[in-house]
Structures are given as structure tokens and as C-alpha cells.
Amino acid sequence: MSKKILSEKFYKEIERIRPRYPTNQALLLPALHLAQKEQGWVSGEVMDEVAAAIDIPPPVVREVITFYTMYNLKPVGKHHLQVCTNISCALMGAEELLGHCEKKLGIKAGDTTRDRKFTITEVECLGACGTAPCIQVNDDYHENMTADKIDKLLSELS
Amino acid sequence: MPEIIVSKFFYNKEAAPLSYYKAHGGYEGLKKALGMTPGAIIAEMKKSNMRGRGGAGFPTGMKWGFIPKESKMPKYMVCNADESEPGTFKDRAIMTYSPHMLIEGMAIGSFAIGARVAYIYIRGEYVREAGILEKAIEEAYKAGILGEKVMGSDFKLDLYVHRGAGAYICGEETGLLNSLEGKRGEPRVKPPFPAIKGAFGGPTIVNNVETLAAVPAIILKGGEWFAGLGKFPNSGGTRLYCVSGHVNKPGLYEFACGAVTLRELIYDHCGGIRNGNKLKAVIPGGSSAPVLTANELDIALDIEPMMKAGTMLGSAGVIVIDETWSAVKAIKRITHFYAHESCGQCTPCREGCRWMEDVLHRILDGHGKMTDLDLLLNVAGNINGKTLCALGDAAAGPVISFVKKFRHEFEEMIRNETNALNGRLSAEQGKV
């Protein structure tokens, strides 16, 4: 295998959590989360390195990773805006908010700004329906969102 | 004074640490349970009439009782913290404010079924909540509540947090188990049920967060006490109702099972509909539940009464829709979700959900035909009951109910060739 992309920290963490599971494959989701945390996304090379690190066949990684929506299979911006438009958020104006984000950043959902600062993704229910509409930026939830709050948030992030 | 169990510490920012929880009666249930036999704990759970709070409403004590006493494979206790049913946000609050209540419930459950390893499978998006749980687990290990000798007893328990990665279907218990094993989260063929063959091939119990969080109180105060809180037979305790949508005061409300009707919840507790608008529709149990109209509000919020009314209490995610919103647009958004989340294993669900979405899209786009309404019912009817897991039914039921109860709205949209869809499906354009 070519030069390692993932850090020592990644390998240490894998060894730390390995005893938690009776199979190697059970390490796959945690390993992919760790890899994405480091790289921002999961490239083909990283998938192969994850497979080697937890000792499972590389095709299994590809088979599994494509089932889940949270693993980025292409690079995303520094700030990943994940806008929920599911029913409870939609009832509270999520689609207008998504439109507002798109207009503000000059990109459509699914795209990344040229400066690689922002990516917008339309996502399904985030489990914050009582404080809808909700936008998740990277790991953080922003609830009871309005166009004004988005403007403020975007200016703080850029 | 209404009984409050799982929401006891809600919105109290100091409540999460172990010291606070212990100072307020925490881990007394586990202490008591460790002095009981596993059989006696399961008997108490059966007596409590606790029915699973995740959506299916299966009696928890009976589920625990399915675990074989002797097993060559290790047994597992798994907490379903995937909380992905649209309209549901209760487990997140429990994990935020009472992580130790969940840990205590899991420890009692693990002891009762003979599990030595337990996992909390939490949806990937709940990064903060996973962190809170990790911290609480660390505290519990340090205090001797988890680990080699649980509270000084001979019972050994390891508890781990396992994060999902974005997939609604992983809330289905066998999809969840596949995901825990590092596989695609596709539901399994049942039987065998998880109690016989679950995680890593071992007997496994999968319980919802709210279900497990109520366990310490049940053990401490007794199954009979818990059962007595419920207003209907065979359904004990309290539960959290998650109210979202067009009410003045959305949020979480804990009441004894069946003590409050849908009308009382919306008008007495949630302050009625926003802007003094009229109510149009209510989805009472998460987006998978068939819709109710404004004339169907005098139904007690419990499993049986909702079933009798042709819908379900599900995860108690009450989604309220007012008169300013189009019923067609609402069901289109819901159907889009199921089409997106169908795992693709069963043809009726994989193809049917997409077809239903396409037909609904066409109606919103001003190109609908009157025959589309029967077509929707036909496709939905061919999904219902014909799939491995409940996702198919969850997609079909709402479509059938919306078409039947709001047929006039669909017809009007088709007749007028209303184009409620111009590029993006915007709420403004979808308004009636």
C-alpha cells in the first residue's frame, strides 16, 4: 500500500475501540467517521486505507459507505450547511430558508462555493422538529432559524 | 399533580452530570434491581404494562422475556437512539438532560436479560448528544456503576456508544443491528427475531431511549404503580408527546398514557393554532401515521384509541398543519422522504414510493389527472403489507389517508391545473 493518509491518532483510536466489538467489520462506521473528521470527506484512497486498518476487504467499504448519507464522497466546504426540509421544518418555512441560503451563497443545494468555504445540502429530518426550522452546520444544530439568523450565521462563519 | 418521569430534568442545564443525578435519587433503581433476580425484574416489567416508546408499542416485559436463559452466544442490550421518525425529538432531550437515566435503565435491562455488553446506537447527526453520553459513561465507569463490578455486585457490564451515519431505516431494529455490525442498514427477514438471533448472532434486546429511561422508576416504584398511571388497559406509564408544526407552543409534553386527548394537547397545552388560524390536519404519531382531520381531535393519546381511529400513536410525534398549508404539498413532502429512505430491498417499496412521489409531483405541477387519485390508492395498496419491514406501510398509510380525507383539495388542484410547483417546491407557491 502507498503512503498512509490517515494520522497516528486515527490508528490509535481504532485500537482503543477495537475491543468493543466481536467483529472487525463493526469498526467500519466508527472508522469512517474518524477518517472523515480528519479529511473532511472519504476518498477512494481513504476507503482502501480504512479497509486495511480494520482488516476487511476494500469492496465492503464501498458497499457500506454508499448506503449512508453522512459520509461525504466528494470534498465539501469548510462549513457544511445541512438544511432540513422535512415536514415539520417545511411547515415552518424551511424551503424558503433553503432558497435564502442558496441565493446568499450563489450556489444550489448539493454544491460548494468556489472558495470552498460553504457547501449546502438538503437533508431529511434532524430530530429538532419542535424548534423548526433547523440547520446543521458541520456538527452543530442551529434551531428556530430565520432568514435574519442565517445572515448573521453566515457572516460569522465566513 | 400530573406524573412526570422521563422529563423530570428537562431544560435543567445542571442535570446531566452524575453528581446531580445521584443527588436526585439516581441509580437507586439499579441498586434495587441488583438485589432482585432477573426473573423478578422481567415480571415487574410485564406488570408495568410498558409498551415500547419507539413506535411499534410492543410490550417491553414480554420482549425481555423472549431472551433464552441459556445461550452459547453472548447476549446484547441495544438502545435504539436513532430517533429518525419525522416529527419526533424526545430521545434527544432525554439524552441531553438525563443521560444517566438512560444508562441506569440499560444497566437494569442488561442485568435482567444477562447481557454483559450493551450499545447505544445513536443517529450520526446527534454529535453533541453522543458526546454527552460518552461523558456520562466515563463518569459511570469511574464511579463503579459500569465495568467489572456494577455497584459492587458480581455483575459485569460494558456500555458503548455507536454512531449511525444517516439512514432512516436504521431505526428499524434489524436494520439497526446490521448497521451496528458495520453493514448496510437493510432490515433482516424475521424470524428469527433479535431476541433469538440479534447483534453478532447473539440474543439481543433493542429498546427505545424513552422506554429504557423509564425502567429505573418502574423498578423503584413497582410495575403496578406504573401500570396504574395509564388510562387504558394494557398501556401503563407516561409518555412524551412531541408537538411540531403550526401550534403556538411546540415542544415536548409528558402526560400519563391516554390522559389527554389530541384536542386538549393542541388547544389547552400547546396554546392552539398560530395566528388564530384554523386547524386543517394532524399527523399524530410521526410522519408514518395516517392523517386526522379537524373533526377527529377528540381521541385520547394512546395506542389503542389511535388504532381504533384508523391511525397510530407511533412515536407520538404530533405534527400540526393549519389551513394555510396545502394537504397535497404536505403529503408530497412526506412521500419524498420515504422514496429517499427506502433501502431498496423490497420492490413494492423501492419502486412504489418513487411512483407515488412522481404522481404527487405531477399533481402539484399542474399536470395531474383525476385518475391519478385512484392510481395513488392503487400503488399504495400494493405496497401496504407487502414489504419486509414497516417502511412500506409507513409510506403507504399516509398517502391513502391524505387522498381519502383531503380528496377535494387534490381534485381542485387537478381541475384548476394549479401550478403549485415552479422550479423549487416552495412553501409560498404551495399555499392554497
* SSE string of chain A: HHHHEHHEEEH
What helical percentage do the residues of chain B reach? 40-55%
Return the domain count of chain A. Answer: 2
Report the span from N to C terminus of chain B.
Answer: 43 Å
- Biggest sheet descriptor of chain B: 5 strands, mixed
CATH homologous superfamily grouping of the largest domain in chain A: Glutaredoxin
- CATH hierarchy, class of the largest domain in chain A: Alpha Beta
State mean pLDDT of chain B (0 to 100 scale): 95
Keywords:
heterodimer, A: 158 residues, alpha+beta, Arc Repressor Mutant, subunit A, Glutaredoxin, 2 domains, four-stranded mixed sheet, 4 strands, 11% strand, B: 432 residues, alpha/beta, five-stranded mixed sheet, four-stranded parallel sheet, disordered C terminus
Brief summary of the model shown:
The complex is a heterodimer of chains A (158) and B (432). Chain A is an alpha+beta fold and 158 residues long. Helix content of chain A is 44%, strand content 11%.
Would you give an account of this structure?
- The complex is a heterodimer of chains A (158) and B (432).
- Chain A is α+β, with helices and mostly antiparallel strands.
- Helix content of chain A is 44%, strand content 11%.
- Chain A folds into 2 domains: 8-67, Arc Repressor Mutant, subunit A; 79-157, Glutaredoxin.
- Chain A has 7 helices and 4 strands.
- The mean pLDDT of chain A is 96.
- Chain B is of the alpha/beta class.
- Chain B has helices spanning 18-23, 28-34, 38-48, 60-65, 90-97, 99-113, 127-142, 173-180, 209-221, 223-229, 262-269, 303-308, 327-341, 347-364, 371-383, 391-405, 407-415, 427-430, and strands at residues 76-81, 117-122, 158-163, 204-208, 238-245, 251-256, 279-283, 292-293, 317-322.
- In chain B, a hairpin with a 5-residue loop joins strand 5 (238-245) and strand 6.
- The longest helix of chain B is centred in the C-terminal third of the chain and has 18 residues, at 347-364.
- The interface between A and B is large, with 49 and 61 residues.
